[in-house]
Amino acid sequence: MKDKHILLHVTGSISCYKACELTSLLVKQGAEVQVTMSCGALKFLQPAVFEGLSRREALTPDMFARKPDCIPHITLAQKWADLIIVYPASANCIARLASGLSDDLFGATFLANNFEKPVLLAPAMNSNMFAHPSVQENLKKLESWGTKILPTEEGRLACGSVGLGKLISPEKALEYIKEEL
Question: Which of 67, 88, 156, 174 sits CB 3.0–4.6 Å from 124 for a disulfide?
Answer without folding.
Answer: 88
